[in-house]
Design goal:
Chain lengths: 278, 299
Amino acid sequence: MMQLTLIELFKIIKRPRTYIGFLAIFLTVGAMQLAMYYEGEELISIAIQNLENDFRLEGKIINTNLMTYILLNSLIIHIPILICLVTGDSIAGEASTGTLRLILQKPYSRTQIYLAKALSGFIYTISLIIFLALMTYVLGYFLFGSGDLIVLRRGVTVISSDDVVWRFCLAFCSGALSMLVVASLSMMISSFVNNAIGPIVGTISIIIGLNIIFTLGAPLFKNLIPYIFTSHFIKWQYFFDFQIEIDKLKLSVIVQLAYIIVFNTIGIFHFNRKDILS
Amino acid sequence: MNSSKILEIKNLHKLFGDFKAVNNISLQVNKGDIYGFLGPNGAGKSTTLRMVLGLIKPSEGNIFINNENISGNNRRYLNDIGALIEKPDFYKNLSALDNLKILYKMSRLKNNHRVFEVLNEVDLWEKRNQKVGGFSQGMKQRLGIAQTLLHEPSLIILDEPSNGLDPQGQADMRELILRINKEMQITVIISSHILSEIEKIANRMVVINNGEKILEGNVRKLMSKELLKVSLKSSDTVRLSEFLKSENIEIEVRNDDIIALINEESIPNVIRKITQKNIPISEVKQMRTLEELFLGLTK
């Protein structure tokens, strides 16, 4: 199993599309940080106009903590696309290029091959999140320096710069878990189709569709929303509340783990029954 | 089962919806054979070979490799088989060496030198660090053969290995296959839709069409000019086949006709006996060569 996972990682490392994700994060985070560096004061003053009527704000509002907080929001759409580029390609891409039939002639079970692909996809996903964290936090630190974080969510929360690092660590962990759900979904779709575009389009369509349901908050779906996986993509924000709601975060972790298990079980089941005709 | 059989297929069926891709195929390949798998495009050759490799699940029937039934989740037998199905597809962004290393590791083997040996065996040593994306079709085919030999299997399956090759490439491929069979003593199954290709290389063969087996036997005998291939149509193929067998005549039964290998002089005698026994026959067709038979049956 370890051998298989290493082989899959080797294939991921050698594939040019793997680096599209890292490059996209580098460019978007870099561009946003530079834009904020030059025009941030103006943008922020518009955003906090109302706040300044009630509070007197002193110090550096734009700092690495605020930038990291803003950029973590890209987890909803931007990062899932980058994840699907690799995880969605892992089975369907190999089916379309014909290499799937080559590796399935080897004496590993299909379940082992699927799990190795899923595991290597998870490692890629986590490395992408770590890269996002480093890019936002480290680059932000050099450009803006540190400072207290002002969070406008359910009112105003000001978090001291000494108290923010552990929150970001847990927020990135929460984000990584959400992205593992995305990776599992695209792997599952990848086992059903024979072209690499299908899992990317399929996964993003599902995420957008569910996000619309979640955002509309229609009464019909109200009770379902806590169990829709996309509603947990922003649960990392809970770590920046004054009182962290542990029970809600626990439920979020359980729901997302359940999705990971269900998506991968369906994927393995179908992959084992699939006739390789490509 | 006979211990000399390396592969035996019994009553194999494959349905894709209502379409019968493989319909009740039974055959056997003996150790040391170069076994030809002849049939037109879409005959069911690749589907049958994919079932042997576990890429497609049979709807019905059994496959035995070295007397072991391979149905279920048993994957160990795959270490005894090397295969090149349809076209040689590799990771184009990787070198020939990296491709083989991946496949070698996936065979759960330790001796890395084998990768270098097979690259030498197929004359690709010089190109080992070149990306496969830049390989010619002939080089890809040779790399395809190399990967079948990696784990030193006792059986290799080559599905249309000459596809896309020029005449010189085809001749080189034949030479390589013969060398693999004679020097390495590996049994080879080679599928093709070109009779002359099978004739040049195989010692035994099967002809399939529309998912059904038409003929199986020794290539020399099937291609012989002394024995006539006679197609007999009858509404009672059971009695007709029993009679022909009792006369020691080699036959293959299809739906409502029988292909028999009969000496030219004895045909009138055989026909007379059939009519004496009141076995209904509606058509008797003589075909002198296997090519005529193959073209006749597959048109």
